[in-house]
């Protein structure tokens, strides 16, 4: 299928996605092929790494350089995506972060009320691939 997204074309043509690595933190195995297809539709050279818990994600972050983190809010273990985002803000604030969840956007925003001026980009499940692509493209363009 021919990709007609001008922004995707710009990123790929400018070499802005070459060598990029994305860490996806998601314990729902049904999401893996969906996210993989979306990310690789941006550029087949994007490397995608997977973790199912905050602990695995922290380990991956300490061992590699990532251009983007996409994390579900609800994850295996006692920590959640919010805990991972806080960790990334403290240790890897230059890495764009996208939070994915079935939470309503208003509920998601209330998690941050009065705690911080900044919140991560948010993508509500279920989502359309175009929504996800747009959010990822925006995040990657800021990382490039």
Question: Quick one: overall form?
Answer: globular
Sheet of most strands? 5 strands, parallel
Number of domains: 1
Content of β-strand? 15-25%
CATH architecture: 3-Layer(aba) Sandwich
Terminal CA distance = 26 Å
Count up the helices.
6
Cα gyration radius (Å): 15 Å
Number of strands: 5
Low-pLDDT stretches are 1-16
Strand order of the largest sheet: 2-1-3-4-5
Helix-strand pattern: HEHEHEHEHEH
Structural class based on helices, strands and sheet pairing: alpha/beta
Mean pLDDT value? 85
Task: Give the helices and strands, then pairings.
Layout lengths: L5 H8 L7 E5 L5 H12 L4 E5 L2 H10 L4 E5 L8 H11 L5 E5 L3 H6 L10 E4 L4 H15 L1
Parallel strand pairs: 1-2, 1-3, 3-4, 4-5
Mind explaining what this structure looks like?
- The protein is an alpha/beta fold and 144 residues long.
- It has one domain (19-143): 3-Layer(aba) Sandwich (Rossmann fold), CATH 3.40.50.
- It has six helices and five strands.
- The protein has helices at 6-13, 31-42, 54-63, 81-91, 105-110, 129-143, and strands at 21-25, 47-51, 68-72, 97-101, 121-124.
- Helix 2 packs across helix 6.
- It starts with 5 loop residues before the first helix and ends with a helix.
- The relative contact order is 0.18.
- The model is unreliable at 1-16 (pLDDT under 50).
Keywords:
alpha/beta, Rossmann fold, 5 strands, five-stranded parallel sheet, 144 residues, disordered N terminus, 6 helices
Q: What's the short story on this structure?
A:
This protein is α/β, with parallel strands linked by helices. The chain has six helices and five strands.
